[in-house]
Amino acid sequence: MTQVNFSMEELSNKIDVRSFVLKNISPYEGDASFLQGPSERTQRLWELCKEAMKEERENNGVRAIDNKIVSRVAAFDAGYINKEDEVIVGLQTDMLLKRAMKPYGGYNVVKKAMSEHGVEIDPLVDNAFSQYVKTHNDGVFDAYTAEIRKFRSLGFLTGLPDNYARGRIIGDYRRLALYGADRLIEAKKADLENITGPMTDATIRLREEVAEQIRALGDIIKLGNKYGLELNRAAENAREAVQWTYMAYLSAVQDQDGAAMSLGSVSSFLDIYIEKDLTEGKITEAEAQEYIDQFVMKLRMVRHLRMEAYEQIFAGDPTWVTESIGGMLADGRTKVTKTSFRVLQTLYNLGPSPEPNITILWSDKLPRGFKEFCSQVSIDTSSIQYENDDLMRQNRNSDDYGIACCVSFQELGKHIQFFGARTNLAKTLLLAINAGHCELSGKKMVDGIPVYEEEYLDYDKVVEYFKIAMKEVARVYNESMNIIHYMHDKYYYEKAQMALIDTNPYINIAYGIAGLSIVADSLSAIKFAKVKPVRNDIGLAVDFKIEGDFPKYGNDDDRVDFIARDVVEHFNQELDKLPVYKDAQPSLSVLTITSNVVYGKKTGATPDGREAGIPFAPGANPMHGRDTHGALASLNSVAKISYKDSQDGVSNTFSIVPKSLGATDEDRVNNLVATLDGYFGRGAHHLNVNVLNREMLMDAMEHPEEYPQLTIRVSGYAVNFTRLSREQQQEVLSRSFHDRM
Amino acid sequence: MQQDLRVHSIESFGTHDGPGIRMVIFLQGCKFKCLYCHNPDTIPFDGGLFYKMEHLLRRAVSMKSYYGQEGGVTVSGGEPLIQSKQLLPLFKALKKEGIHTNVDTNGRVLNSNTKILLDEYADLVMLDIKHMNDEWHRKLTGVTNANTLKFAEYREQSGKPMWLRYVLVPGWSDQEEYLHELGQHFKDYKTIEKVELLPYHKLGVHKWKELGWEYKLADVPENTEEQIKKARNILSLYFDNVKVN
Ligand code: SF4
Question: What is the ipTM of this complex?
């Protein structure tokens, strides 16, 4: 069964992990009964981690910060939790949960974060970054136009990665294990040789980038040396494969502090090595589980230094170590292996956790045993999310991909993404009603939209003006993105990750929108009821009077659901027309992370009856409390948003009380499986699943100390509930928890 | 109006009324008046709203992707089989769509329409047994249990699947001897796939007040874990598959 070829001969021509996986994978069709609990060593280590996390919580969310060393690959000495117990080694710094400065994204942000935690920056570092070193943030603001600044500061564009690292890029961390750094350097050198004149901008830039990558691979070898690991060569057994893969990832998070730094899809790759060692009797199942438990434990300990304001858009200190498991191969076999189960088992062995952000690539054809185990894990931990593998595999033409950040497809080692946060579509709609003026500040944002004179809003006219607004907002958004990614490449290039990716990858630019449900309901109100804007003395609509009822998004009613669908399609088409840096291909997400709260704050009253300042629904979710026709009707509405118009992902968060899923444990497991099959069977893209009682969350708000590991899915990722701000906790509680209806 | 169904309410994500995920249509009207009825507002015949068969069918079909291997549509109530005639076209259409059908009934009605429904269109019947002792049955429901037992016999002869459901009311329907009697009576039935014990709860009490009816079980406590376990153990002597819902 296992035909691992550890001699590199067959592999030596091309860097090609997928073929290796295809050739050697052992799909597993059974159930979870083989799984083992945590080893004593693992338990001891996890106790130390829990203590460290407690200290972190008690110390305003940060255990320690290094104020001298500017982080890069191998900048720190080796760090351990407790060396004797560690079968998988490596920490970001020389101490558990100690955070490091990575000022190349923006020095002011680092300075602010340090001062918020009362840590003084070493004068040498301060001097260098205040006087001599230019950062990504500096570069962006040199190039930003007055118009972009205005859109940004008034909340039309929010959370742009212009003062922090963009993240989103997934290195193919498996490459280090399969080939070793020496072989990867060789391949990159060969690539570099082939990048020749004429020396255009693009060619020069690429040559410089590859040279950086080669240097980073050298640093990775040095990092290995610090831990006594020969990363220059390929991994030779299961423990090494796990260790090498982790070191590749560790290099990335030493080099960068991107918003989301995802892992990809490593489990079934690692399974090949584990399966071989198991078959040859070199290790036991308990040891296999120990490798995975400790690997995952390390992933849970990844930290970045953030300033407090960052919490508003990305609450709960997330790192998005997204690991995608499951899915099917193009040849019809499943990618589920025993190690897919082992990764899920960590949620029992170490308890629930938001990280790594475990994402199940769901297919109708997944083995039943795996489906049931996933469902059980969701019911028990609310820690995992689901994405439609059939949809992505077929639409994106790849069966070897990971999910970047929350919901976004990325072919491993072949694609990257330029992350672009999101634009506020609800505010954009208000531009149509306010003659192109910001509804709060009154500032003129967009030209060409006539003053709306009639007493009642007319659907056709509002849509016509809205289209003008979308076109202009798309233009400004695109301009800001081009500047951001140009500068990020220039000042904070992801050399360690790009070293593990093909030299000239396909690039998606990842745009996003927030406020879809508000826009859909607003347009529905205008179309099916009568909506009268109440204008202030300078003519801005500050409130809306609605006469009559109207269909609301979230009730499986085509009249309004198709409005939502069409808005996404239209905005995506507008973005599609615009030129992008490095010829990246546009893609769009309907996703908010936790920024739906701050977006709400920055948005005035809307024609759907939402008052000024009220939070948006997260992602593509219907507005809180408006999906009154039950859980399935709500899911059906979201499923109508077309993936082809939003290939960066359509996020939906589904919360249900345990009892509603069924009377017995078996019923609950089966009914959640049926729900997922049903939802994805309709072509839906993503689903967060929470199986929780509202009462428990309320109790956790009052007694956070009793719920140190309470995990809840928010919008494409999971957070530790007790680490959310009170405001965000309340917003979570205000969402629809589907009860029996 | 003749063909329309008088509906009390619809639940689109039913997970407690038959296998899998189900759309549950609660029909209006019942000739029992069980003292513990937790949907007493479904008892009167004059309430509810009329729905066209086509409307119900369309809604059922729109949820089809979630039914999977097991789920489907359940009609409950009230007592759904009082509207057997109107249910026939709906069930016919559901079968045509390949949707699994289930009737949750107290078994009082067994007319010619009911028989066609049972023989040809109801994939599953969940028969609510209120009590094995006729006197107690009358006390609890106001009517005899003879019809219900006859109904069970009829379904058994059809050879098609049936679940029994039994609400366990402390002091009223949890007497050991009658639980044994229930077991004895049904133990040789071949069509019984499952016996569901439904613990007694008071979630519907406020509805009695709203209707201006006296709730006679006000002093009856909810079951203890112990009581449920005991009843379950007794029934397990006779049936392979006893579940607490
Ligand atoms: S048979 Fe059912 S609906 Fe009728 S009264 Fe009894 S419990 Fe209520």
Answer: 0.91
Residues in B touching A679 (Cβ below 8 Å): 65-66
> What CATH number does the domain located at A9-133+164-413 have?
3.20.70.20
Provide Rg for chain A, Cα atoms. 25
Tell me the residue range of the domain where B24 lies: 5-244
Catalytic amino acids of A? 405-406
Q: Chain A: give the shortest CA distance to residue B209, in Å.
A: 22
When pLDDT is cut at 50, 70 and 90, the band that residue A498 belongs to is: very high
Q: If you measure CA to CA, which chain A residue comes closest to B68?
A: A674
Residue span(s) of chain A under CATH 3.20.70.20 come to: 9-133+164-413
Residues of chain B whose C-beta is under 8 A from some C-beta in A? 11-16, 20-21, 62-63, 65-68, 70-71, 243-245
**Interval B158-204: pLDDT, tens:** 999 999 999 999 999 999 999 999 999 999 999 999 999 999 988 78
Contacts of B66 in chain A (CB under 8 A): 632, 674-675, 677-679
pLDDT tens, A701-716?
A: 888 877 878 888 876 6
Residue closest to A619 by CA, chosen among A735, A497, A482: A735
CATH number (domain holding residue B73): 3.20.20.70
Give the relative orientation of helices A425-433 and A516-528 as an angle to the nearest 10 degrees.
30
Residue A678 and residue B65: Cβ atoms within 8 Å? Answer: yes
pLDDT given for residue A712 in this prediction: 82
- Write the DSSP string, A562-617: HHHHHHHHHHHHHHHTS--GGGPEEEEEE--TTTHHHHHHT----TTSPPTTPPPP
Give the tens place of pLDDT for each residue, A106-118: 999 999 999 999 9
Number of domains present in the structure of chain B: 1
